[in-house]
Design goal:
Layout: H1 12-16, E1 28-37, H2 41-52, E2 57-60, E3 76-77, H3 86-117, E4 129-132, H4 139-151, E5 156-159, H5 161-168, E6 176-179, E7 183-184, H6 187-200, E8 204-206, E9 213-217, E10 220-224, E11 228-237, H7 252-255, E12 259-268, H8 273-276, E13 285-287, E14 295-298, E15 304-308, H9 316-331, E16 340-350, E17 357-362, E18 365-369, H10 376-390, H11 411-417, H12 421-429
Parallel strand pairs: 1-2, 1-11, 2-8, 4-13, 11-18
Antiparallel strand pairs: 3-7, 4-6, 5-6, 9-10, 10-11, 12-15, 12-16, 13-14, 14-15, 17-18
Helix pairs in contact: 2-6, 2-10, 3-10
The structure holds flavin-adenine dinucleotide (FAD).
Flavin-adenine dinucleotide (FAD) binds near residues 37, 41, 70 and 245.
């Protein structure tokens, strides 16, 4: 990629969001107390919280803020992981796991509070998040989640089939899991708003500056780019699923512990008012229990923003448009003809057990990866925790269950095999669970 001219994916968000701030490249030799590599939600939130604490911080971003997953996702603000529930997290990580569950429980409200605190116009709607179940047997998933999250104080409810039908305007689901603190945002507007906010608070952001390496030199971390270098006392590597995108040698262990899987996003043409009032009338964000996920939310112009998965990315828009139009018509026959204005994709960093990976890389150096498609809210909350980690808060006060990086064997091969999992998901989705 030519870094002097960053190309944005043809996404709904890139089409409707005011441009981000003008930013310099990293040139010459610079210094900061904390260096953050990557300007997505994690990096921007880390910088925001460091500036709130008066700490000097500089972000080194390969493209522009929000260019990775943060600017191209579905924008659903979800205070849960995709599969593991609180008891799984605590069983794996003990007390740090309990603190993590508390952070996750509050993460959606935390994100909306940040947008209000700094007047960031991210088209946010805290209308709630619903996970409807797609077969009668899957109600067990919703029941388990309600039981476990209630134990940890989350404001969750079990929805009956009738309540789910009223909430979604469709008879396709059999009940659901409901959390009122969730909702949705325009993710690129949030990323660019955060970038403006952290600049206003006195952070530096270097753009179009892919970090080629980081190393320890004379008790400091040194990050090198093609045109310069920056040294700092502490380091946060916030490159997540895009870790291997610009430099294979930057953080190979982190790049190889997640499987970057393409997720396709699509925006319909705006729905007429009459139709819109009958489809998710309360404007909640929705992601259901299919392994081949069904998901949808409105944007601020009444487009349904949805999407799907494919085994091969070849001719994706041509394959996806009829597939998703038929799905929407099955769920909501009243929608009529469906046209899509935007189709785009981004990498979701998957782990084998759907748990995120959080690492201490050395003295005052941290990283995380493995969003599993559920970390809009989590990455903002994690940024706050990572900022506390580099300020020296003790482990016992951090909601950060650390593990050592564990690169996947045969990562290169698995990357190409992983999309075949979709066949397994389709098989499982079609079966009832007893
Ligand atoms: C298509 C899609 C849909 C999703 N939908 C949802 C959703 O609806 N709800 C939800 O909760 N989660 C969703 N997610 C997940 C969510 O988007 C991510 O968890 C979140 O944005 C991660 O933020 P991040 O800052 O950690 O990573 P990113 O936003 O990916 O940021 C990493 C940054 O690092 C930069 N970078 C990479 N290499 C270098 C380098 N060498 N030097 C400097 N910078 C570098 C990249 O340019 C990028 O800006 C989705 C993800 C995708 C891809």
């Amino acid at each position: 990629m030519n870094m002097s001219n960053v190309r944005w994916p043809n996404s709904l968000w890139a089409a409707v969001t005011p441009s981000g701030p003008d930013l310099p490249e990293l040139t010459g030799t610079q210094q900061a107390d904390v260096i953050v590599i990557g300007g997505g939600f994690t990096g921007l939130s880390t910088a925001l919280h460091l500036r709130e604490a008066g700490v000097d911080v500089a972000i080194v971003e390969a493209a522009e803020p929000g260019w990775g997953a943060s600017g191209r996702n579905n924008g659903q603000v979800i205070p849960t992981l995709s599969r593991p529930d609180p008891e799984d997290i605590v069983a794996r990580h003990g007390e740090a796991g309990e603190r993590f569950v508390g952070m996750l429980r509050d993460s959606a409200s935390y994100l909306f509070d940040v947008t209000r605190r700094y007047n960031i116009d991210a088209e946010g709607e805290q209308a709630g998040w619903v996970q409807p179940v797609h077969s009668p047997g899957r109600i067990k998933i919703a029941e388990r989640r309600v039981r476990q999250w209630s134990k940890f104080g989350a404001p969750v409810e079990l929805l009956s089939r009738e309540q789910t039908r009223d909430m979604l305007g469709s008879d396709a689901w059999f009940g659901g899991f409901w959390n009122r603190t969730g909702g949705h945002i325009n993710p690129l507007a949030l990323a660019r708003g955060l970038a403006r906010t952290v600049l206003g608070l006195g952070a530096r952001i270097y753009a179009r500056s892919p970090a080629e390496s980081f190393e320890r030199r004379n008790d400091r971390w040194v990050v090198k780019t093609a045109k310069g270098e920056i040294s700092g006392r502490a380091l946060v590597v916030a490159t997540n699923a895009y870790s291997g995108e610009f430099s294979k040698s930057l953080a190979p262990d982190i790049a190889r512990e997640v499987m970057p899987v393409l997720s396709w996003q699509m925006a319909t043409q705006p729905l007429s008012d009459n139709v819109r009032k009958t489809i998710i009338p309360g404007r909640q964000a929705m992601s259901d229990t299919h392994g081949e996920l069904y998901f949808a939310r409105y944007d601020a112009r009444n487009r349904l923003v949805t999407g799907g998965a494919l085994i091969s990315p070849r001719e994706a828009p041509a394959k996806l448009k009829p597939m998703l139009a038929a799905r929407l018509q099955r769920l909501w026959p009243q929608i009529g003809a469906v046209g899509f204005d935007h189709v785009w994709s981004g990498y979701v960093g998957m782990t084998s057990d759907f748990m995120p990976r959080i690492h201490r890389l050395g003295p005052d150096a941290y990283a995380w990866a493995g969003c599993n498609g559920r970390a809009v809210a989590l990455s903002i909350a994690l940024g706050a925790e990572l900022s506390r980690a580099v300020q020296g808060y003790p482990d016992g006060e951090l909601a950060l269950p650390f593990t050592a990086p564990a690169p996947l064997l045969a990562h290169g091969v698995l990357r190409y095999v992983k999309p075949l999992m979709l066949m397994l998901y389709r098989y499982r989705d079609a079966r009832e669970i007893a």
